[in-house]
Amino acid sequence: MRKLIASVAAGTALVAVSAAPAAAAEKPPASIKAEAGLLSLNGKTIWKSEADARRPIASLTKVMTAVVVLRRENNLDRAIKIKRKYTTYADKWGATEARLVVGDRVKVRDLLYGTLLESGADAAAALADTYGPGYPAFVKKMNAEARRLGLKDTKYANFDGLPYPSQFSTYSTASAQVKLGRYALRFPTLKKIIATKKITVRSAGGRTYTWKNSNTLIGKYPGGLGIKTGYTSGAGYCLLFAATRGKKTQIGVILGSPGPNRRFTDATRLLNWGFGI
Question: 2-275 in CATH: which number?
Answer without folding.
Answer: 3.40.710.10
